[in-house]
Amino acid sequence: MKKSLWITLGVVLLLLGVFVWYKYFFVFGEGVKSGYLNYAMKKGYVFKTYEGKLIQEGFGRGKTGTITSYEFEFSVDDPEIFKQLETNSGKTFDLHYKEYNGALPWRGNTKFVVDKVVNMK
């Protein structure tokens, strides 16, 4: 009886660990987004995180023949990357990002974390 309780507890802890890893640390996808940097800021109550928004232009489902903008909100882990974004607001960026299944408070407010500036114009 006591042995089966420990085995059950071990399996539950293992499954919980796998869930936390999959939800918060597994990189679901990664890619590059391009657009104009709308803002880059540091914010938060307890954990001060770096956040930003990229405006992507293109033809969308708006009125026929009009240009629709798409917004890409992201978090930044590295203070050096944030400093580069902050000092060049309004310029065109190609940003490499990683997409996670969930956001952690100390990593940022979004599931998308920018880890590299590919290009800046």
From TrEMBL:
The keyword Transmembrane helix applies. The keyword Transmembrane applies. Keywords: Membrane, Transmembrane, Transmembrane helix. It comes from the Bacteria. The chain crosses the membrane at residues 6-26. This is 6-phosphogluconate dehydrogenase.
